[in-house]
Amino acid sequence: MAAVEIHGYAIVSDDDRIADAEGRMPDVLRNEADWAYFQDGLDRSAVTVLGRLGHEANPNPRGRLRLVVSSSSAGLERRADGWWWNPQALAWRDAIRQVLPDGGQVAVPGGRRVFDLFLDISYDAFHLSRTEGARIPGGVALFSRCDSGASAETILSERGMEAGPRGVLDPSVPVSLVVWRRKTN
Fold this sequence. Notes:
The chain is of the alpha/beta class.
């Protein structure tokens, strides 16, 4: 199988939330510098994997190839708006072999169920941006375990990833960025 590299992308609040209680991204997490960084990551990727709700809520004006995670698919289906994949019906390895037969970079921008799914599949890198000083009480957590008090950093570390240096995308907020990478032995 051709090489595939999986990159997760998320911007979170200090309490590791990616959305408000209604599942919408709040203004406090919207940042132009982070958006530009994220768009660059999508531009480098051969396919973007996201949940059905994220797919429906976010237009695809650049026509990027999408793989939509949905139980409405029988396995893997090619539809007019991208590939639709049901991970309960077809393993990741088999799905990505059909979607990217020549390999390439995969961008995973979520939502939470998709982020959790790829914890098991295994990220090669996770680009974790943080709007420092922001909290979203009752919001949607990045990973399900964050609801039990585990931090995103703890979860990534437990999955064999290590943090790179902290960078600052926007010092006025600030919005920081740490890229977590799979440990190499």
